[in-house]
Amino acid sequence: MKTLNKHMILFDGECPLCRVYTKVFVKTGMLGPGGRAAYQDNMENFCPLIDRQRAVEEIALVDLESGEVTYGVKSLFKVIGNAFPAFMPLFAFKPFAWLMAKLYFFISYNRRVIIPAGRVGEEFAWQPLFKLNYRLAYLVFTWFCTGCILTGYARLLAPAIPLGNSYREYLICGGQIIFQGTIITTFAREKLWAYLGNMMTISFAGSLLLLLMIGLNHFVKLPAIAYPIYFLTVAGLMFLEHIRRTKLIGLGYTLTGTWVLYRVALLALIMFNH
Questions:
Q1: Mean pLDDT, rounded, for 4-16
Q2: Where a domain ends, among 114, 140, 155?
Q3: For the chain, what is the mean pLDDT?
């Protein structure tokens, strides 16, 4: 594996996800020692002509000898392609490059709701722009995946929780987006999309934990009581994460209260109708 020396990758120091994968580049030798730096640390020192706003939105890779800068998925292709030349024909294949660019933007423009940066980002002058189309795409993606997994897990909860039709969990999950979105617009409309993104990350993460139990169920048959207990444990973790994230984005406990109220009311309705 070849090391891309005399290059500096500039990452978002307030983004845990960015810190991790750029550190991996250095640790594995794909980039040379000291080949990464947070763009918050005077990025103009590495390249005076760098497009600062673009570097905030698309990770920048600076050639320290020529001053050439690549951005976004092209930066990742350059690092990975140098280390593993066999991937270069794939990276040069335009349909693949286009798809990876869209995936990169999908993650990049939602990175602050996938793993929140906290309040420190408010102090730095250059911040990622908000792209509504990518946030909507993220909400749809997490809604669909969560609904699909919950539909599968609902079979493990029966008969303790009556089994509904094939689209019940999708309606419940989608209804929560509408319900919580309506609540937050009454007192913090400017944080609507940040909150909904964080809320759906919590739902998606919770569903992935449930997916582990679904997978385990294919190999080991546990007592029936284990499935609702595990579900309640996951719900408890989601509750704590909801409190943590709403605090990070400067919201109080109101939305946590309505988040719980919605779920309890739906559960009561399901039980009452059966």
A1: 92
A2: 114
A3: 93
Beta strands (DSSP E) in the chain are: 7-11, 36-38, 60-63, 69-71
Q: Indicate if 238 and 195 belong to the same structural domain.
A: yes
What sign results for the dihedral spanned by CA atoms 270, 271, 273, 274? positive
When pLDDT is cut at 50, 70 and 90, the band that residue 193 belongs to is very high
For the residues 17-26, what does the mean pLDDT come to? Answer: 93
Q: What pTM was estimated for this model as a whole?
A: 0.93
Q: What is the pLDDT of residue 274?
A: 64
96 and 134: one domain? no
Amino acid, res. 249: I
Going by the DSSP 8-state scheme, the letter that residue 129 receives in this structure is P
Size (the chain), residues = 274
In a domain, 2, yes or no: no
Domain count, the chain: 2
Strand order in the sheet with 36-38: 36-38, 7-11, 60-63, 69-71
Buried b (16+ CB within 10 A) or exposed e, 25-64: bbeeebbbeebbbbbbeebeebbeebeeeebbbbbbbbee
**What does the pLDDT look like over 109-148, one tens digit per residue?**
999 999 987 654 455 667 788 999 999 999 999 999 999 9
Whether 184 maps to a domain, the answer reads yes
User: Is the separation of the CB atoms in 143 and 170 below 8 Å?
Assistant: yes
* Residues 106, 142 within the same domain: no
Same domain, 156 and 221: yes
